[in-house]
Amino acid sequence: MPPKGARASSSAAAKSRSSASTTASTSTQSPLSTLYNSYIENTPRRLKVIDAFLVFLMLSGIIQFIYCALITNFPFNSFIAGFASTVGQFVLAASLRIQANPENGKTFPKVSPERAFGDFLFGSVILHFFVFNFLG
Amino acid sequence: MSAGTSSKGAAGQGTRTAYRLPTLSAESNNNVLSLLRLIIIFLIAGAAVSSRLFAVVRHESIIHEFDPWFNFRATKVLTTDGFYRFWNWFDATAWYPLGRAAGGTAYPGLMVTSGAIYKLFHSLNIPVDIRNICVLLAPAFSGLTAWATYMFTAAMKDDAAGLLAAAFIGIAPGYISRSVAGSYDNEAIAIFLLMMTFYLWIKALKDGSALWGVATALFYFYMVAAWGGYVFITNMIPLHVLVLILMGRFSSRLYVSYSSFYALGTLASMQVPFVGFQPVRTSEHMAALGVFGLLQLVAFVELVRSHVPSKQFKLLLVGFVVLVATLAFGALVALTYAGYVAPWTGRFYSLWDTGYAKKHIPIIASVSEHQPPAWPAFFFDLEMLIFLFPVGVFLLFKELRDEHVFVIIYAVMASYFAGVMVRLMLTLTPVVCVSAAIAMSTLLQTYLDPKEPTPVVEGSGGDGEDDNGAVAKSTRAAAASRKAAEVSSSTDSELSRPASPLFRASAFTSSKFGVFGLDSRFFVTIYSLLLLLVFVLHCTFVTSTAYSSPSVVLASRNADGSQHVIDDFREAYYWLRQNTASDAKVMSWWDYGYQISGMADRPTLVDNNTWNNTHIATVGKAMCSNEERSYPILRKHDVDYVLIIFGGLLGFSGDDINKYLWMIRIAQGVWPDEVREADYFTPQGQYKVDDGATRTMRESLLYKMSYYRFNDLFGGRPGMDRVRQTPGPSKSPELDHLDEAFTSENWIVRIYEVKKPDALGRDLPGVKAFEGGKRRKRAFALPAAGAGGKK
């Protein structure tokens, strides 16, 4: 899964930048710090909670992927189920973050943040039903 | 249509109208419209169901064709043995020495659907036979398809177009051909699921709602469980997303809808045992994965961009996205070459390289519905829709919303695929109906619009250049006014449309161009209605004559118009069922495998599920070799009976002699040095069955079985083969290793029993010669010299 891995690594790097690290090279110092400052200042607290959850999911997915790549993929359906649960949950949480973001209010005229949370719950329940069915 | 005509605001403020409109309050207007919609939908569903019942009314309620017999048998297993037995069903009677794990190698959606309906009816104390549910499932689902198409088209344009599209797909022969009553095939429910998935996808995209994305995934799951054509959806939706991204139309709605659809839909599709790990392992599914990854990247970049408004940074990020996407694509190609990702399967690959199947996989090319269609097929199946279709696509281009892009891509892709393969006319039909309905409803709405343009006396200068702009403006204004009239009925279609106050303000009140008077309106409307009427007549005619014949019984008309039914197939199958041992193995060409196991209930060697090419080639080799070589094959496979179809007496063209070349080709693909196609042609390259046939042909098993005792019917003279239009062999062939066991009334089905080896150890030709009282030629030869008993 090259695209997913690429996406995960890139956004992981960005997320770690945004959360803690400051060891960036000098040439890209200013955009990154702008990004970091802007993120810290402009992001509401709730979205930061979701972001923390996203980072956790991403780390979990990466660990599973590394385990599968390095050690074994033997019960392949279990790997798929576990990995798909992190990916699916990531995507659903990211959707929730996008929909609940007050800046995106005009993009989603039909989806209020509460409705977005309801959608998130519904999607997660369905997702985990399939995950448990597939674990084997 | 009604929605367009009774535009509420138009009658009031000073605009002149061509005819008086009924004055209704807004509320009662809405009520009337929704009542009309309901009635129209029900009538369409009624028409869709009743136009599919020709075969049931004329003949009887019976399963048609070949594939549905397996589905029917599997459904019976499901209803009698329960779901879990069905899920793990190992069919030991198919593919005789091998067996088939049917539960894991079939799409279970169809059987589970009819099983659920069966359970529902029985829980309501309506004891319907499972056969009737299976026969009538396709008509019932065609009604649902009409409804789903209505919803889909209403999301594209408006309710008026939706109703037209529903009416079109309700009776379009391109869809009826695969969904008449008795055609219990996967396509029966698949087209409904296709349209429903597409509708939900469009809805998810418009709202940007994860809920509808999940609903799309669930219907996608149902579709995966129902039909192998789900790959079409798997590639259509990512293609739509990709095109939207490339058009610069990425939005958060796109991210939410596609990501929730893909993440759940892919995991859900892997629950179907027949699909298994294909969604992560095969090339057909890689487009969806790639677009998923790309979408994550783009969304992340958009997020960063919202935080950093620097221009260089944007450039940097765009470059980053392009780089990563290229790298990912390269990695995918590398993985495919390295073998981690399976390349395209032959069935799909033959859609791109159209000569591939014929060269490498003759079994795919041998199926008649895998051939490219000729032009008349399009007109035959879609009549006037086929020339309204491009108009509709053009109109969608003019007002290019996100969901219109979907229909345009769908139109292009489905047109290509339908041009390559007759069978895929089925996936073309819905989009043709949708765009034809959009074209037709635009036409009708333009000419039924009661608003009269005000003729203004113009000054001279600059008329020509003003013309074009004004025409475009006024047509768009007409569209805008129509939309304005329907905001109440379909508000969600307002969502992503760019607001156009300009047109409304200027062109609404003083339009110089438009339709003047009643006469032009009248002519165009009558003409359109005439077209629609002819369409209905054509559809009914085609359905009645071409698509409503059960292939199990052959109907013909006598000179006085009375019907003559030829029922040889069931005659023979029931003979097998009642007069043979219950474990007697029947060998036939694979076309009849499902019917034999469904109707005769006997084990078969090969059937229509062509999963083992070598086994089919074995049967082909046994059919096209001479008796001495095919008898060991028959014995090794425990064959008790050999069943062939012979249409020479009656003129039934789909018989085994006409399929013979495919048997030879398939056998040749596996044993090139034992079977050679050229041996069956005369030196002039002719495929002959009369006395001019080659020696290999005359000695082949199938030839002998087909013409065995054929001349007896003609009093010993060479019989006339009415399919090949030549005389048969002048001397009837003799069979040494087989006995004729049964021949049906019109000689269509002939069943031969394989002789057991001689108890005294003699070879069978020798036994026959001995019993026939023939003297051995070399009476003085030593026995060890061999059994040259033949002649």
How are the SSEs ordered, and which strands pair?
The complex is a heterodimer of chains A (136) and B (791).
Chain A: H1 2-19, H2 29-42, H3 45-70, H4 76-100, H5 113-135
Chain B: H1 2-5, H2 26-50, H3 54-58, H4 67-81, H5 83-87, H6 109-123, H7 130-156, H8 159-171, H9 173-176, H10 187-207, H11 210-226, H12 230-246, H13 252-269, H14 278-281, H15 286-307, H16 311-338, H17 346-352, H18 356-360, H19 362-365, H20 375-382, H21 385-398, H22 402-420, H23 425-448, H24 463-485, H25 501-509, H26 517-545, E1 554-557, E2 563-566, H27 568-579, E3 585-587, H28 593-600, H29 613-624, H30 627-636, E4 639-645, H31 660-670, H32 695-699, H33 701-707, E5 720-721, E6 726-727, E7 738-743, E8 749-754, H34 764-771
Parallel strand pairs in B: 3-4
Antiparallel strand pairs in B: 1-2, 4-8, 5-6, 7-8
Enzyme class (chain B): transferase
Protein name (chain B): Dolichyl-diphosphooligosaccharide--protein glycosyltransferase subunit STT3
Transmembrane segments (chain B): 35-55, 133-154, 160-176, 188-204, 254-274, 286-304, 316-340, 377-397, 404-422, 522-547
